[in-house]
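If you are new to this repository, start here. Below is one unmodified record pulled from the training split, so you can see the exact layout before writing a loader.
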Amino acid sequence: MNPKAYKKGSLTVETAMILPVFMTALLALVSILLMYLAGQRMQMQLINTAEDLAVKCSDGHNEALSAIRDDFVDSIPEEDLRFIQNGKDGIDMSGSDLDDPEYIVLSVRCDLVPLTGSFGVLSVPYSRKCLTHIWCGYERGYYPDDEYVYITNDSEVYHRDRECSHILLSVKEVSPNQVGSLRNMNGGRYRACEICHARLTGGRIYITDDGDRYHNSITCSGLKRTVYAVRLSEVGDKRPCSRCGR
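And here is the target side for that same chain:
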């Protein structure tokens, strides 16, 4: 046998054996990269969904989680859905939390698979969570020709200074035996908060200078104040704050 012919035949056989392995590995690598990009796009869409929801819920409007999931799933393009095991049915958002009056938590879980048809035996758990504050006013500069002021829920005045002491809560921790002798900035006494059912036997007590309630829990919603940044032209009949509104 001709040695050259034998060598050429050997290279042909080796190439025939190695090339499919190389192409398979290259295809798997490209598939994993595309799967990763699909996950990144899904994360961005989760953020966009949370931001849109933060605006919708700013006026107290409640949105059903099932409707949010349907909108989120419909926003995922088909070329990305092929990397999600079971497609749309494989997306779980049950870990989301919409009950907090100040924050929205959206969670998405699924299994990602590279090229579902060829590598379906391999799946990668995918989990992302997005925490967004409920929209509380315009970003400064959104309307450059208008002045921005600050208001709170049920307030009768507006503030030009975000750090005004009338809207800037100063929470203090005091002992239960002090509460009876303390007075707020208006000279009023402190009474038990109806929200956290505060008791003077409950250990730590929290108060604010301008409030008239004492609280057992630092996370009590009675200690929270939502401040909205709005245009001056939108405050209606609210009067300026006597301290910072001049």
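Two things worth knowing about this chain: The mean pLDDT is 81. The CA atoms of residues 113 and 123 lie 5 Å apart.
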